[in-house]
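input
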Amino acid sequence: MYPMLKPALRRAWRGRNTVQFGVTPAHAVKLGPVDIPTGSFLELLDGTRGLPLLYEEARALDLSERHVDLLLSRLAEAGLLDDPRSAGAGAEALRRRVEVIDRQRPDEASLSLVHPEPGGGARRMSARRATRVQVRGAGRVGASIASLLSGAGVGLVEVLDGGRAEPWDVAPAGLDAAAVGERRDVAARRLVRRSAPGPAPRTGGTEPVLSLVVVAPRDGLAVYAPSPDTAASWIASGTPHLYAGVIEATGVVGPLVLPGGTGCAGCLELRRADRDPQWPRMLAQWRSGRRGAVAACDLGLATAVAGLAAAHALAFLDGDLPASTGARWEAALPLLDWRSERIGPHAECSCGAAAGLRARPEQDRTAAEGDRAPGAVPAQDTMAG
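output
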């Protein structure tokens, strides 16, 4: 064990004997009381010393081994300690690829805060390289999502789209100007390779299981009112899928659909028809109508949607359920006031999510339906000494 205080958290003394780790309420922790020898010992926790050397230096500060053990235990319980060397063989192999890990140090630092156990950040960075994500769409939103996922360390990012890239597909985080006139799928594959922090990991001849599909078509209507038929194979195979796009200067992220567990495209369509009996009639016209105009897809909004969708996708791949799970987030220009709408399972939908919800305990149903919003975690006191 080579313990280190998480470098991602800034430190400040709140007074003579209390140290605060972290600035923001989401991750801030107070440690106290801390005497002068213990404060000096904290400076030694930089990941370069194993326990034997730490015990030796603690004795020079008149601190016992028991005091060191208790301090380290409480720091670990508070999520303040890291130890990348304890993250396993995969993470160790990644650490040896300096050119890759240097690109991803900010990502690993972020993961170390979200997953506070020692080695949690390094372990999940390694796990990302074994994941496979399919992005459906290579327009301003889809291509940008693909490049962000690849740059964040997802091992295999596939992009599916047809036709040839147009000038209005170009975006700073997506396809470049050289891609205009080229097949979209070919240009997107080149973008993914260029965005990756290093060569794709070896798979040993077997392709990883598809972890997530991101549905980001160039036609924003297919995100705002997704077709249940398109998602039928994902529902049948149990493949999670996330919708993201822009329609008429309105950005949309979600829902993230967990087949059999959350509301799907079919549930969304049925709920809209319940609220507005004319919705199916209008939707059929919109879907069958000819599109001649370039989509109203502002570059700033498209990039914001791509960033939010990529962050939600990464949170899911890292083992969490982001706020788009069974919900959709929308923001329209010019105010960009993000608002969420819960997409609950519909009893008449064939996806089966409503049946699963009825079988769950009342408290679980409440959480699944989104009646409670998560709150910020206040700074906690961790006593040492």
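quick obs: The CA atoms of residues 87 and 359 lie 38 Å apart.
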